[in-house]
Amino acid sequence: MSRVCELTGKKMIVGNTVSHSNIKTKRRFYPNLQTKRFFIPEEDKWITLKVSTSALRTINKKGISACLKEAREKGFLINK
Question: Of 13, 40, 41, 53, which residue is 20 to 30 A from 25 by alpha carbon distance?
Answer without folding.
Answer: 53
